[in-house]
Known about the structure:
141 residues, 3 helices, 18% strand
Amino acid sequence: MTDCIFCKIVDQEIPSYKVYEDDQVYAFLDITQVTKGHTLLIPKKHVTDIFDYEPELAGEIFARVPKIARALEQAFPEMQGLNIINNNKELAYQSVFHSHIHLIPRYGKSDDFSIHFGNNQEAYSPVEMQEIAEKIMKQVK
Ligand code: AMP
Ligand code: ZN
């Protein structure tokens, strides 16, 4: 795609700090380095977001996640955990519309990453939970 910053990175039209590359994927340091080693894994093919993947390409990209995760673990033995994040659409914090997976090494509770998981368990009865599950299940194709 001509006006996509990540396509330009894949095509070496703009520079990046490359971590890994093969025929399907490219991995490079996120410029913001939320934590040391913060890496983005992207398909070389332009895919806008998770809703845009063919199953084969999804398999190719997700198959590379453990490879990069293990490389980070080996590179930074002080790493204590790893958050893997994939934002989809603006509301969900996607700011570059070429799909990418963030790998964010964690070094301690006071490193510069945080995430909030609310707990709304009390808002749903077992019947409502079942209805929600069935509503989704009917759409899985
Ligand atoms: P998201 O907000 O999930 O769409 O993530 C996009 C990420 O791309 C952000 O974390 C940015 O810091 C990162 N980013 C944007 N431009 C570049 C670039 N030229 N090189 C490396 N990372 C970039
Ligand atoms: Zn692109």
